[in-house]
Amino acid sequence: GLPICVTVTLALGVLRMARHNAIVKKLTAVETLGCATVVASDKTGTLTQNEMTARSMYSLAFPSLCFGLTGVGYDMKKSGGYLVRTENEVITSANKLTREDSGGSNDSGGGGGGRTSSPRKTTRQVTEKSMEFNALSALFGTASICNNASVTDDDGRGGVPMGQPTEMALLIGSAKANLPDPRPMYHRLQEIPFSSDRKRMEVKCRPVGGAHTCTAFTLSARRHSSTNGDVPLSSDGSLYFVKGMPESILGECTTHTAADGSAVPLG
Questions:
Q1: pTM of the model
Q2: Cβ atoms within 10 Å, residue 114
Q3: 134: nearest Cα among 22, 219, 23, 223
Q4: Over the stretch 176-193, which tens digit does the pLDDT of each residue have?
Q5: Which of 17, 88, 153, 185: disulfide with 119, CB 3.0–4.6 Å?
Q6: % the chain with pLDDT above 90
């Protein structure tokens, strides 16, 4: 008698869950779910469309600026999307425009100790002619080259996406920044896949035609060894491109990309 009653009770619970669009495969799972008070779930693909979107990025070449990408999802024909920069502007009591740097101080450009109002954020689109594009092209170029995702069409602005959501977000973000996919211009020599221990992915690539697609990459390939100044770090122009967790990558870095694409000491 008791097993039958328990089975009927659990079956009724399954029916009630089904009315709320929750499908339960095992009857015993209803009892477990009924005892749960908090449900933690990875929303990417579980509760959404399995799409991630790159929304913001940071460059040490411009520490006082914030960069972002508009639009949501992979379909750029529907949501659009482009690269923008945001900075804080302050209007003083003397009606002078000032800009806040990363430390919170104000640069009025004309003196005056007038009181300032609350800062306002101004947003401008970043194009190929913008001074920030050189440094950001290195960022997006690395995100695209060190990437195994793909889009079936030619220009990366539509079609069927293939790959992990994180890598697709970086690839679509590069397309929003109006940076063509540089991977056809490179020959991949080696790949070290992402792992939970190393927390980063690395690929070694050589430009097919001998010329890199970014000023920062060209200057990096021309750098010489610190121990022997006559020996270049890369004899054939090949470079390692890395993406991963900041704490995993920054520990291996000694320089960062400046506004003109050159390498300057980190810190």
A1: 0.70
A2: 14
A3: 219
A4: 999 999 999 999 999 999
A5: 88
A6: 32
Give the start-end residues of each E strand in the chain.
56-57, 66-69, 83-91, 97-100, 106-107, 120-125, 150-151, 161-162, 186-192, 200-207, 239-244, 255-257, 263-265
Please name the residue ranges forming H helices in 54-181: 76-79, 133-145, 165-176
User: Using the 8-state DSSP alphabet, how is residue 224 labeled?
Assistant: B
Which H or E run includes 6? helix 2-19
Token pair 């009181």 in the structure block, residue: 115
Tokens of 129: 């002619």
CB 256 within 8 A of CB 266: yes
| R_g of the chain, CA atoms, integer Å | 25
Tell me the pLDDT tens digit for each residue of 23-68: 777 777 777 877 888 888 776 666 677 788 899 999 999 988 889 9
| Packing angle of the helix pair 215-222, 133-145 (nearest 10 deg) | 80
Task: Look up 153 and say whether it is catalytic.
Answer: no
How does strand 161-162 pair with strand 186-192? Answer: unpaired
Q: Is the pLDDT of residue 238 over 70?
A: yes
Active-site choice (42, 153, 197, 230) = 42
Which residues, other chains included, contact 226 with Cβ-Cβ below 8 Å and sequence gap of 6+? none
DSSP at 153: S
Q: What's residue 109's pLDDT? A: 47
Query: With the CA atoms of 94, 98, 102 and 103 taken in that order, what torsion angle do they form, in degrees rounded to the nearest 10?
Result: -30
Which residues lie closer than 8 Å to 242 by C-beta, 6 or more apart? 142, 146, 200, 201, 202, 249, 252
